[in-house]
Amino acid sequence: MSTVNLSTITKRFGNVTAVKELDLKIKEGEFFTFLGPSGCGKTTTLRMIAGFYYPTEGKVKFNEKDMTTVPPEKRNTGMVFQNYALFPHMTVYENVAFGLKVRRISKNETKSRVEDVLNKVRLDQYIDRQVSQLSGGQQQRVALARALVIEPDILLLDEPLSNLDARLRDEMRNEILRLQREYGITTIYVTHDQVEALTMSDRIAVFNFGECQQVGTPSEIYNKPVNDFVAAFIGETNLFSVTPDKENEGIAVFQSTDFDKSIYVGHTEENIGSYVEGEELVMSIRPEAVRILKDSDDGNNVFKGKVSLVQFTGASVHTYIEMKNGALIRATDLNNGPSTYLKEGTPVSFQLPQNQIRV
Ligand code: ADP
Ligand code: MG
């Protein structure tokens, strides 16, 4: 087990800056996820930790030991690649044993370690199969076994589930978590899939354009996004541009051209970032926080509109409400909630709870 410390690392390829001044501290035994859209520098960062790339600037440390330019085979990291990178013409045993052979581990020890890890990933019956005869999910397990068999200090996984179908992805998600907990191994997981990130991680770093936008636990990232990129990338949200108005007894007031009345937001550090007066800001409210009202009362943050679209997804129902000036807001309810049976065109009122708005 090991900590990973990236201090102000930058990686340039010619004039492309793939990763820019990244600072991250990953704790021992942590399941840490790099999340972001394609091309934002996730793989490049992972490769700098594995040693396949060296940073242009900055330092990579494991347990405070400088590893910045240590070659990959001397870092004791296990890596699972997006396309698995298995040897298709070799057996499961030969694939998994490969890393031990390179490390000149004895035949007997190799055999017992390979059998042990194949047992852990539940592939013991397939030990003599050729990899090319296995299903995608089984190949994924071979790749995991191959990374784990060397008893790495750090496990690096680059979008390991992206080639699997939805059902298998769910299963492997749990499988990876089980193995990670069992081995207690520091794990860095790369994905563009927010559900994977939210369900698996102890902490998440959200990347965009080579820079880290926010680091936090899944609930911090979801409930307290620091900017509109994070709010929109992690889950669904409603975004509106607003300008600050006068503030009264801890309640901040905002105006928006999308709303016909002021919007009130409890002014806590969590709800509102720092801003200068007159600045145009972005307001975010999650669809599940938007409350559709049965009676059209006239309280704070109660607005009127009409239902423009209802989408039934099974477990939940999305209702799009169009306001007077055409702006849309989405409300999400559980199936059988108050909005389940609303018809398109119905006039409705909805409320934006003061403590659930982020500006
Ligand atoms: P991600 O894994 O988040 O999709 P990458 O780390 O692969 O992103 O890429 C980040 C950026 O760096 C992209 O713009 C990509 O084109 C560029 N890049 C990555 N690897 C190389 C390379 N070997 N040579 C040149 N550019 C690269
Ligand atoms: Mg990548």
From TrEMBL:
The record, for Pfam families, names: ABC_tran, TOBE_2
EC assignment: the record states 7.6.2.11
Record-annotated ABC transporter domain positions: 4-234
**Reaction(s) this enzyme catalyzes, per UniProt:** ATP + H2O + polyamine-[polyamine-binding protein]Side 1 = ADP + phosphate + polyamineSide 2 + [polyamine-binding protein]Side 1
Keyword flag Cell wall biogenesis/degradation = no
Q: Name one GO molecular function term.
A: ATP binding
Q: Which SMART domains does this entry report, sorted A to Z? A: AAA
A GO CC term attached to the entry: ATP-binding cassette (ABC) transporter complex
Is Translocase set as a keyword in this record?
Answer: yes
Top enzyme class, one word, equals translocase
| Quaternary organization | The complex is composed of two ATP-binding proteins (PotA), two transmembrane proteins (PotB and PotC) and a solute-binding protein (PotD).
**What's this protein's function?**
Part of the ABC transporter complex PotABCD involved in spermidine/putrescine import. Responsible for energy coupling to the transport system.
Name the NCBIfam families for this protein. potA
Question: Which protein family is it in?
Answer: Belongs to the ABC transporter superfamily. Spermidine/putrescine importer (TC 3.A.1.11.1) family.
Q: Spell out the protein name for this chain.
A: Spermidine/putrescine import ATP-binding protein PotA
What organism does the UniProt record list as the source? Answer: Sediminibacillus halophilus
